[in-house]
Amino acid sequence: MLAMLVALVRRLVQSTCFTRGMKHRANHLLRLAEGFTRRLLVLRAQEVAPDPPSPQRAASSKPPQPGRRDTARNPALSLFEALPSFPRYPVEPIAPAPPRLPAPADPNAEADPACATRRLSVLEDILRRPAHHARRMAVWLKRFSARTGRYTPFCLGRPPGITRRPDDPELAGKIRDADFFARRVLMPAPG
User: Which residues does the annotated region (Disordered) include (predicted)?
Assistant: First the structure.
């Protein structure tokens, strides 16, 4: 299922005329695929024990040089979904502002596929090396729960990209199943 989503986005991104409408659709499919991948990694991370850092690896690592960044490294998939932010105190406007309507964007205008291509390359890397990313998720989950006390890296409510009336009910059902099982695995034991 994940490979099908990745292939569909790859076809969109590699089209000769990548428009704003296609970019919107590609980002929607990427959000679906990333949420599904995150849940599958949580399920796989429960089977994998995180590797402790070896003493040789820790001793051989060089300290990072200031001002230098490794550009060959792929960006990683964010392992958590952002929680909604709520204001700490009620915010009241001083004076009502007139509504500002943005100019409608032309859906047929050209768009840059670079961001979608980066996100797609990360998903393809996860498909190539699932064990590596499952270990990464296991280590992250252990640190995350110890530091924050929050037991789930998922957002509240429905998984990202799932609407009340989905375009593809079969895909939405599979993502909801993965969401249910991933949340169930991460629940603390009763008592």
Answer: 47-72
Written as six digits, the tokens of 84 are 């909604």
How far apart CA 139 and CA 129 sit, in angstroms, is 16
Q: Is 67 exposed, middle or buried (0-12, 13-18, 19+ CB in 10 A)?
A: exposed
Enter the pTM of the model.
0.72
Q: What is the DSSP letter of 135?
A: H
Mean pLDDT on 94-103? 71
The whole-angstrom separation of Cα 96 and Cα 120 is: 42
Q: How many domains does the chain have?
A: 1
Q: Which domain holds residue 180?
A: 1-50+108-151+161-185
Residue 7 lies in a domain: yes
CA-nearest of 152, 134, 140, 171 to 31 is 171
